[in-house]
Write a structure and sequence with these properties.
This is DUF5666 domain-containing protein. Keywords: Signal. The protein is mainly β and 208 residues long. The chain folds into three domains: 30 residues; 71 residues, OB fold (Dihydrolipoamide Acetyltransferase, E2P) (Beta Barrel), CATH 2.40.50.320; 90 residues, no CATH class. It is 13% helix and 50% strand. The protein has one helix and twelve strands. Strands 1, 2, 3, 4, 5, 6, 7, 8, 9, 10, 11 and 12 form a twelve-stranded mixed β-sheet that branches. Strand 6 and strand 7 form a beta hairpin. The chain is elongated and about 50 Å long.
């Protein structure tokens, strides 16, 4: 009986070891990025080549239903009480939240991604999409109180912080030299596809 138990146990242990090593290998695989920020180097048919801000070359298939939006600069004063905004923030030296950029959504996009979550623009950055309920003008910027369904946050926006909004765009905006943020997914064959691209207007680099 003992010999039979041992014979049965060895295959089980072997299977467990294989499963564990497979899990470890999967855990060590780098996560697939969800967006690439960079400059379009070329567009040929439905394929776009992007040089990322960190220097990588990324080839993207442009989905047939890809949505393209333009990003254009506006003034800090254009952020009004009632505006629905997205603010990328980092912790400030005083413990508050300092804006790295703010984008004002057009009314048709109100409610997009409402909430606050970690973001990948900078270390320790957070993206908060919310409605401006208060705006206090200071000597060197504005302090916004933004509210979303699960909470609120005070955000300091300096006079030097990029402020932008979205405007309609189309596939013709995707051309060499344009600065873009392309949202992407990995296809089963290992290639990448984008179905949503934000492109800077007039040479603007989308700051978000």
């Amino acid at each position: 009986m003992t010999i039979q138990r041992a014979s049965f146990t060895r295959p089980v242990i072997a299977i467990a070891m294989v499963a564990a090593s497979t899990f470890a290998a999967a855990a060590q695989k780098a996560p697939v990025p969800t967006r690439v920020r960079g400059t379009i180097e070329s567009v040929e048919g439905d394929t776009m080549q992007v040089k990322s801000r960190s220097g990588e070359d990324v080839k993207l298939h442009i989905a047939s239903d890809a949505r393209v939006v333009g990003v254009t600069k506006i003034a800090l004063a254009d952020i009004k009480v009632g505006s629905f905004v997205g603010a990328t923030t980092v912790p400030g030296p005083d413990g508050g939240d300092n804006a790295v950029e703010v984008h004002v959504f057009p009314e048709s996009m109100r409610g997009t991604g409402e909430g606050s979550r970690p973001y990948d623009l900078k270390p320790n950055s957070t993206m908060t999409n919310a409605t401006v309920s208060e705006s206090v003008v200071g000597n060197d910027g504005h302090t916004l109180l933004v509210k979303y369904k699960d909470g609120e946050k005070k955000v300091f926006v300096s006079d030097m912080t990029p402020v932008v909004t979205f405007v309609p765009g189309d596939i013709s905006d995707l051309k060499a030299g344009a600065k873009v943020i392309a949202f992407m997914k990995q296809l089963p064959d290992g290639s990448f596809e984008t179905n949503r691209v934000s492109v800077g207007r007039d040479g603007l680099t989308p700051p978000m």
